[in-house]
Amino acid sequence: MIDLLVAGGGPAGLATAIHGALAGLEVVVLEPRPTPIDKACGEGLMPGAVRRLEELGVAVTGRPFHGIGYVDGATGLRAEALFRSGPGRGWSRTELQAALADRAAALGVRVLARRAGEVRQDGRRVWAAGLTARYLVAADGLHSPVRRGLGLAVPAAPGRTAAARYGLRRHYAVEPWSDLVEVYWARGAEAYVTPLGADRIGVAVLTSEQAPFDVQLARFPLLTARLPAPPGRGTGVRGAGPLRQRARTRVAGRVLFVGDAAGYVDALTGEGLTLAVSAAGELVRCVRAGRPQEYERAWRDLSRAYRTLTSALLWARRRAPLAGRIVPLAARMPRAFTGAVNLLAR
């Protein structure tokens, strides 16, 4: 019987598979899409994520960045916070996913081109995709079919649908002009600029308004003035959302959830990958000890700072009188801004 069956071969699923293989478990990953898998994301790995990936034996490359810069999209007012624990890395999602896949393969993890489909379980095992395992890990993304199939998705609260947030991302062939991840703030949207290489950056826009990428980007004239013309309308744009997703639990019998499938607040603070890799380690530890129910508390403890800070910033973001003060306050209170950034960078 397989020890760990992982539904999803993205970063969260592969990190879980690597943790499991390093712990001596037999792991099989279900992923119908060919490697590498691309998706909309900011592509900036915080220092904590870099360290955790290196601890798994993943060869982390990409472009170093040394902190976070907030920029008022209209006035150009800046606030900067430098990391205290080493640089982060700007790394394209496809390169990250390919490196994780290579590491998992080197450890003997099998990847099958299948979907999990219907999931069944009893007190000793779980069945999915024609396979039997001791545990199933759902790492199948923001809109997790496993979470939905088990009835564990929490519907959006009334009135929240209009405020739902979405992410859009495009790469540009241009030399990075900063060694920080820059976050440009405008009314109703943020644009994240991540250095990815000597001649490439990624621009990700988070917004609550559904409109094409170029329409969203026009909110940031100081940023667009630095960008080359894209090759064509919509070219190379990846999208995701709604970002806010809630799960009733992280443990449902012998099914455990990790990554975005475990629940997601927003990409505002860029901590999704750090949390996913850290939670994957805790999940494997709990499973190996035969106490999977302890993973729920471990996940809550790991994600508390991310959930609290992201929710607070998102709350302020949604209130026009406060939203316009975010960058000025960060500039006026550099120690507090640096402390918050480094709390999330751990």
Verbal overview:
By secondary structure, the protein is α+β, with helices and mostly antiparallel strands. It has 11 helices and 20 strands. Strands 1, 2, 8, 9, 10, 11, 19 and 20 form an 8-stranded mixed β-sheet that branches. Strand 9 and strand 10 form a beta hairpin. Helix 1 runs parallel beside helix 3.
Write the layout of secondary structure elements.
Elements: E1 2-7, H1 11-22, E2 27-30, E3 44-45, H2 47-55, E4 63-65, E5 67-72, E6 78-82, E7 88-90, H3 93-106, E8 110-112, E9 120-121, E10 126-128, E11 131-138, H4 145-149, E12 153-154, E13 166-172, E14 181-186, E15 189-197, E16 200-207, H5 213-217, H6 221-224, E17 238-240, E18 246-247, E19 251-252, E20 255-257, H7 272-288, H8 295-317, H9 320-323, H10 326-332, H11 334-344
Parallel strand pairs: 1-2, 1-11, 2-8, 5-14, 11-20
Antiparallel strand pairs: 3-7, 4-7, 5-6, 9-10, 10-11, 12-18, 13-16, 13-17, 14-15, 15-16, 19-20
Helix pairs in contact: 1-3, 1-7, 2-7, 7-8
